[in-house]
Each structure stands twice: as structure tokens, then as C-alpha cells.
């Protein structure tokens, strides 16, 4: 298995992430995650695609929150990460209107999460799943590198509790450390 491709033409958009495992080539991060979960179902965290014995309903609960991340959380959080983290590093002018718009949209999403997480330990139920995992990268950038992101997440008690739990996992600490070492 490898992340990235020897043959860049195999990824139709010419971007990363790209993933190759033998004859299987995938290019969308959530599809890559689902593939790895299914291929290695007997290893690691058994509940990533739904609770044991949860059947179709358990998997659907995970899928709906993975889609909520992709469709509702990711667009405004990506815009904020770009405007607040990467634009300054790239010496690009920040767009206050884009920042304000993204922050407003993300605030609405986090309000939905706050209500939902008031009755659920994690997004798809009582066990950590792919739905939670998909939120880690952008939320990490927002919290680690921006005051605005901290205000958005920490001002919501249930979201803050959820974030503490998912970001405090040893596996995520390893990812953060690998990123830090790669940047050094």
C-alpha cells in the first residue's frame, strides 16, 4: 500500500490524497478511509464503520455523519483554515468577507453538533468512528493555529468535550507528532 501514486494519471484530478493498493487506486480521502476500514476489518478499532452488531443501521449512522463532515463541516472549515492559517503563511491577502462567511456557516454546523452531542458521546453513537476521525485534520488546524477556531469550538460545551476525547487519542497524537517532525 502506498499513499501517492507512481502514475499520476491514475488520479483523475491530479491531486492528493491518492492511494494505491495493488490494482486498487483511490483518490478521495473518505473513500480511502472506508477502503482501509473494510480491508483491515479484523485489526485495530473494530467500530470505525459502526458498532459491533450495529448492522446496516450502525454503518448508516457513521455514513451520515461522514457525509455531514464532507458536505457541512468541511467546506466552511477548509475556507477558514485557508484564510486564517495558509494565506498568511503563503503571504496571500486574507479575504475578510470569505472569513466572515465561513465562520458564520461553521457556527451553524457546530450548533447542530452541539445539540447532537448533548445526547451522544460521539457523532455516530457511543463509540469512536470514522465520522469522528474525518473531523480531526481541519479541526486540529483551527484549534492549534487560530484564536477564532478556539472560540468556535470551545464555546460549545458538548463539542469541546467531544473534541477533547477524539483529539486525545494516542493514534492522533502520533499523527500530530509525525506532522511536526515532517515540518521540521
TrEMBL record:
Q: Which family does it belong to?
A: Belongs to the GST superfamily. Phi family.
Transferase as a keyword of this entry, yes or no, is: yes
Say if the entry is tagged with keyword Hydrolase: no
Name of the protein described by the UniProt record: glutathione transferase
* Recorded name of the encoding gene: LOC109713017
Give the stretches traversing the membrane.
none
GO cellular-component term (any): cytoplasm
SUPFAM superfamilies, per the entry: GST C-terminal domain-like, Thioredoxin-like
A single Gene Ontology MF term assigned here is:
glutathione transferase activity
GO-annotated biological processes: glutathione metabolic process; response to toxic substance
Keyword terms: Transferase
| Domain of life of the native organism | Eukaryota
Please report the stretch or stretches of sequence annotated as the GST N-terminal domain: 1-44
* GST C-terminal domain sequence ranges: 55-184
